[in-house]
Design brief:
The chain contains 20 helices and 27 strands. The chain is an alpha/beta fold and 642 residues long. The structure holds FE3-S4 cluster. It is an enzyme of class 4 (lyase).
């Protein structure tokens, strides 16, 4: 029986467990990555685990999210991460070096291996034929400490690509097309594996654009085969030695299949405020544009930006449009500078930002009130850009560049311009001066903790019976941005939970923290797909700090559910979804016999004391998850079991 590429890599790294969907396995983690926004917590947790050396083959600490230094806080965090990296043997990537996923593709990713990253777009690495999984920070800290990761084996969805993309249609349009078909929930519980003859014409960075936004489909990760294109990319990066060919067996078995004809795809756009609210650009009514942002881990590769420069060369950005461009890496910026493309962008009137996440995380470049902003990024949730009433559309770099010239959202295939053909350089620039490799002798090295770094909160072991109020009831599809907003004002406090707690659920309700403190804790009732979006661990740590003991929802997004368990917060699900309607804020509920129910895998009875009725909840988790919850979270568990 033929094996999928996914199963072949998992099997190659399998430490324990049975490789079948739904069963729990432990695998060797070859590489980890962190970015600074989640990284400070990861390294505080690694400190608390009290280890000497990391157990992975390679771990990298990137600084890409919070690179503005308007106060001392970010610089202190960078220094803390730098010192922790040196102490534990981790490669440190300085601010300005670029976006973690782009850099990891360029310099470290390796076909056939497993990468765990504390960022939800870690699946970008799947473009290189490796399994890149986004996980909570604690999982990443534990992976560095133990060299392992425990997960439930996902099902495998095979997307077979046929045909060839038309001119002006690119990888971004492909993934937007898939999002339109499958929605933000379509990949939940799956690893998406791409195959078919259509794969051959997709460059490595095209593939990475597609796997990057597999995160928006809710997939555990996405992966392309490692083939000649992979070898070509690694060779141009002077990393031929890292190449291995990895493809699925002939006749591989998959749990689900989707066939996509690339010829049928036209330029697409995700309209406000969800990545799956997709339509063909030609079908969207003419809208005037205020801002266009090009970059992010989805679309900041050399080819993406060189195409943009070629489209803008010798022309002028529309007077009403602010065009901002953030390159994916310092080496891309260097090549653009050497080849004159940077000059073309500047003479056209583009604003060049440093190589970092920048506007994608709301780190500068918030558009004006009620703006229409076109972005080549991966998310367009309300408020993420830093302006609450702005409307953000997600589009391809080609659509962005052409729209920057016309001043309205424009289908590039109808613009009448010549299609820019961009060839790859024989060799990419591979300067490494922004990387700091750990010293050989690390004896006696200490971490440096500035005043903005506060200890992270610890939960208590689970108690058997809780009588507790409902503090908040949310609708469906609440994002981690809704639970714990992240913007330029708040990012400097990512290692200061008490300060962040003042903004918890800030997009949904005012002063949640005051209510939570007055009630001395409580629970949250959530709708469908609770906690979708970014892997933000703070969306669990801040509620933990505010005394949230459980979230009862119709369903959970995968990473957020894992983050809740890691924090010792119970993620429970209504057995009958209609029971959701019966609960209101301020109702007091009683959860009884929790420990026994979890131990025995039984359903949990919930009594609504205020309205005098009972209903049933379920917990879908492994034995290990139960142990984590009983211990009061992952860190307590690791400490107890050292
Ligand atoms: Fe950075 Fe945005 Fe990607 S914040 S890692 S560019 S999703």
């Amino acid at each position: 029986m033929g094996k999928s590429l996914t199963y072949k890599i998992l099997e190659n790294n399998l430490i324990s467990g049975e490789l079948k969907p739904g069963s729990e396995i432990t695998v060797k983690v070859n590489q980890t990555l962190t970015q600074d926004s989640t990284g400070t917590m990861v390294y505080l947790q690694l400190e608390a685990m009290n280890i000497k050396d990391i157990k992975t083959d390679l771990s990298v600490a990137y600084i890409d999210h919070n690179t503005l230094q308007a106060g001392f806080e970010n610089a202190d965090d960078h220094e803390f991460i730098k010192s922790a990296a040196a102490k534990y043997g981790i490669i440190y990537s300085k601010p300005g070096n670029g976006i973690c996923h782009q850099l990891h593709l360029e310099r470290f990713g390796k076909p056939g291996t497993i990468l765990l990253g504390s960022d939800s777009h870690t699946p970008t690495a799947g473009g290189l034929g490796m399994i890149g999984i986004g996980a909570g920070g604690l999982d990443v800290a534990a992976a560095m400490a133990t060299g392992t990761y425990t997960l439930k084996v996902p099902k495998v969805l095979n997307i077979e690509l046929h045909g060839k993309l038309k001119t002006w249609v690119s990888a971004k349009d492909v993934i937007l097309y898939i999002l339109k078909k499958l929605t933000v929930k379509g990949g939940v519980g799956y690893i998406i594996e791409y195959s078919g003859e259509g794969v051959v014409d997709l460059s490595l960075t095209d593939r990475a654009t597609i796997t990057n936004m597999g995160a928006e489909l809710g997939a555990t990760t996405s992966i392309f085969p490692s083939d000649e294109n992979t070898l070509d990319f690694l060779t141009r990066q002077e990393r031929t030695k890292d190449y291995e060919g990895w493809i699925a067996d002939e006749g591989a078995i998959y749990d689900k299949k989707l066939v996509i004809d690339l010829d049928k795809i036209t330029p697409m756009a995700a309209m406000p405020h969800s990545p799956d609210n997709v339509a063909a650009v030609k079908d969207i009514e003419k809208i005037k544009v205020d801002q266009i942002a090009i970059g992010s881990c989805t679309n900041s590769s050399y080819t993406d930006l060189m195409k943009v420069a070629a489209i803008l060369k010798g022309k002028r950005v529309h007077p009403d449009v602010s065009l901002v461009i953030s390159p994916g890496s310092s080496n891309i910026l260097k090549m653009m500078s050497d080849e004159g493309a940077l000059g073309d962008l500047i003479s056209a009137g583009a604003r060049i930002l440093e190589a970092s996440c920048g506007p994608c995380i709301g780190m500068g470049q918030a558009p004006k009130s009620k703006a229409i902003s076109l972005r080549t990024f991966n998310r367009n949730f309300k408020g993420r850009c830093g302006t609450k009433d702005a409307d953000v559309y997600i589009i391809s770099p080609e659509t962005a560049a052409v729209s920057a010239l016309t001043g309205y959202l424009t289908d590039p295939s109808e613009c009448g311009l010549d299609f820019p053909k961009v060839a790859l350089p024989d060799k990419f620039a591979v300067y490494e001066n922004y990387f700091i490799y750990p010293p050989k002798d690390r004896e006696g090295l200490e971490v440096v903790m500035g005043p903005n770094i506060k200890p992270f909160p610890l939960n208590e072991p689970l108690i058997d019976t809780m009588e507790i109020p409902i503090l908040l009831k949310t609708k469906d599809n609440v994002t981690t941005d809704d639970i714990m907003p992240s913007n330029a004002k708040l990012l400097p406090f990512r290692s200061n939970i008490p300060e962040l707690s003042k903004y918890c659920f800030g997009t949904l309700v005012d002063d949640f923290h005051v209510k939570a403190k007055a009630a001395d804790g409580g629970i949250v009732i959530g709708g469908d797909n609770y906690g979708q979006g970014s892997s933000r661990e703070h969306a669990a740590l801040v509620p933990l700090y505010l005394g949230i003991k459980a979230v009862i929802a119709k369903s959970f997004a995968r990473i957020h559910k894992a983050n809740l368990i890691n924090s010792g917060i119970l993620p429970l699900v209504f057995k009958n979804i209609s029971d959701y309607e019966k609960f209101d804020e301020t109702d007091v509920i009683v959860l009884n016999g929790l420990i026994n129910s979890l131990d025995c895998g039984k359903e949990i009875e919930i009594l609504n004391k205020t309205k005098s009725f009972s209903c049933t909840l379920t917990f879908d988790g492994s034995k290990r998850d139960v142990e984590l919850l009983k211990s009061g979270g992952y860190l307590n568990y690791v400490k107890n079991n050292k």
